[in-house]
Amino acid sequence: MQPLPTPHRTGWIEVVCGSMFSGKTEELLRRIKRARLARQRVLLFKPRVDNRYDEVKVVSHEGLNADAIPVSSAAELLSLAGADAGEAAVVGIDEVQFFDADIVVAAEALASRGMRVVVAGLDQDWRGAPFGPMPSLLAVAEYVTKLHAVCTRCGAAATRSQRLVAAEGQLFVGGAAEYEARCRACFVPEAAPR
Ligand code: ADP
Ligand code: MG
Ligand code: ZN
Question: Which residue has the higher pLDDT, 123 or 194?
């Protein structure tokens, strides 16, 4: 009988998803902090479009924060992380839904190179539709965590982000003044066609 082959040292993808205020950023920062405690080299990225709280920090709604590298595209992220090949054990990305489909290829390339890739993002947009690259990321990830906020109307587990102000497009970055967490029953889908 042949002995089992020795497992390869392999990377993987972790996705943390959920609605706004569900604690995605807190969870990402918790995982990043623990990796640093384990003395692993970490690179933390954010899309440049998300400058709500800070240009170069990932910041949670409670004010938890960590320094991050703002990038404009998946290619930029890949070149920065790639220049670091062999060093960074963990790559974190917040607000990953704002990237295009190239982020899926980039995350897979980094994981295949042996890195642990932890991404956090909204699984649904303000209409309740799947957000950008999230469906693909969820499909190719080894580990998926879906978090829930508290519905501001009834206290149930919230899975949706209700937009409270009129604004155009999927990409409208906001905070508590513009969005609130709602459950399926309390969410009012936008009537306007996409
Ligand atoms: P996300 O990244 O998913 O938008 P954060 O990690 O930035 O969420 O923030 C989570 C924090 O938001 C919670 O710890 C809590 O203090 C705060 N928060 C505000 N509104 C809500 C809500 N409706 N449900 C849950 N948490 C809320
Ligand atoms: Mg967040
Ligand atoms: Zn509700």
Answer: 123
Ligand nearest the Cα of residue 94 is: 2
Query: Measured in angstroms, how far is the CA atom of residue 79 from the centroid of ligand 1?
Result: 32
Which one of the ligands is nearest to 46 CA?
2
Q: Is residue 178 part of a domain?
A: no
Q: Per-residue pLDDT tens for 166-193? A: 876 666 777 778 899 999 999 998 744 4
Residue 114 Ramachandran class (φ > 0 left, ψ -120 to 50 alpha, else beta): left
Tally of domains within the chain? 1
The answer to whether residue 186 sits within a structural domain is no
Q: 161 is written with which tokens?
A: 């982000």
**Cβ 146 under 6 angstroms from ligand 1:** no
Whether 95 is a known active-site residue: answer yes
Tokens representing residue 160 in the block: 């949706």
